[in-house]
Amino acid sequence: MQKESLIKINDYLWEIPQSFRSDMLVPARFFANEKLMGDILKDRSLEQLINLCTLKGIQRYGLAMPDIHEGYASPIGGVAAIDIEEGIISPGMQGYDINCGMRILYSEYSETEIKDKIPQLAEKIYQEVPSGLGKGRKIKMSISDLDKILERGAQKLVNDGYGEKEDLENCEAGGFLENADASAVSLLAKQRGQNQVGTLGSGNHFLEIQKVSEIYDDKIAKIFGLFQNQVVIMIHTGSRGLGHQVATDYIKEFMGLMDKYQIKVPDREFACVPFKSPEGQRGFRASQAAANYAWANRQMITYYVRKAWENVLGQKAGSLKALYDVAHNIIKLEKYKINNQLIELAIHRKGATRAFPPHHPDIPTKYQEVGQPVLIPGSMGTASYILHGTEEAEQSFYSACHGAGRTMSRHEAIRKVQGKELKKEMENKGIIVKVGSVFGLAEEAPQAYKNISEVVEVVHQAGLAKKVVQLKPLAVIKG
Amino acid sequence: MAFQYEILPHPADVKLQITASTKEELFQGALAGMASIIQPQMPRKAPIAKENIEVQSLDFNTLLVDFLSEVLAKTDISHAVFNKLKIKKLTNNSLQVEIEGQKSDYFSQEIKAVTHYGLEIKQDKSGNYQVTILFDI
Question: What is the set of domains in chain A, with CATH numbers?
Fold first, then answer.
């Protein structure tokens, strides 16, 4: 892709016209500034974005966020809004890690008040929350209990005493999607999920103890319950092996049905069927069930983090409140005005965070005036951000970026960065590092990612979400 | 068995290229290559794990992906890394195989999925098979 083929809409928005390739059903649009453009043009992400524009039923534009980078099927950072009457459902358009997402818990303390306890806290959390592949929990859940989690997500765990009612209020979709159906999930997927509720996993998943390092909007920070130097906990994980299996199962099944439904896609990973077909509906219900599993996973991790917190801080502990929990790999039904008619669309987000505006009916009462908290993790050891939803983000079907976005392969990162040295470097900056594998650490080195502040600035300037606070890590826990 | 595998660079995920002289060896090479991503150094002493897998697929390309996906599921469930196989039956769209590996409590790399992205098994002039597989990690 040459830059000359792109139309600059404004300083932060670019378009690839529908005429660029004959099979595009809509134009492609992506958010970037000149600086990020260099990385975007280096890989195949724009070619993949064009492929996304061929999906049947796609509305307005095929979209990508400023952290766009090459994946498979859709680029990471891709958003496709599909008409459910005429269009398709594509598991590959949400990715294998269904409802990979973020949760933030906030404490009552500033860094200075509990600074001496942070190393102990990091150690205790590392012990309580298994990370890394192969590290499941010791107790295997029964299939019937798992079915309840698949249909009731975080709500099932809160009802069982693993959290507070407020955890559900401050969670996208209240912690579960009603269309979920456990019977649409294969036994193999369930077997993979039996001992993984409450586990982080490895790769780019992590848990961080952070502090509020900068406040951009005092009023909204206050509404979010945030103050300068406050200690918060950020959790990044998804539906683990269960979600991976659900996506694998339905991509395989849909691939075999493409001829039946006379659907052609430019990449087999987009395997899809009509959304309203019996197979499409079953796939949708399975996807919603896997999303519920992910919310339950983050809820169970919350339970263990609180346990560690209380264990280390004792009577001083106070509460760890849920700020918000939001998915960035998901297929959701949302309503949008298309040709002056409010219609339900299947919003496929793959590496894009939902960012609902003020007064949206699906966000908690306490955020009604300011929009939902939009949680954006940075690369390891760098800054993360909390933003708030805006009405302007209607242009992106209320979606924002989901992170920094990779620029260097994991292999290259391991070759270029010594895990042990990186650990030392982070420790010299005062960051505690609890990690299962130093290879894993090197893979996630900040050098392997775009500059998160640059990416978030584009989101802010494009109006997809507005900055509220910046967070800096005090401790990193990962597999 | 005559096969070779190599990990190729990719911005976000892992690409594995396998070259083999027969279809059977291609499957063996893919299995060994995937195991090397999950666990670059297999534990010296660990209990042996064995599993039987049967796969039916659309074609030979998807058969390879479906086979590796099944292995991945078994890896997750039995906490084992599988790197050897005994093929009982192999056609262009079906496979019956026994896989063997070692139990392991901790893996170096989590593979989320075996993708079909750009996957095409090709045969060169001398009859060798070659394929590149993209793993979502």
Answer: 3-407+449-478 (3.90.1860.10)
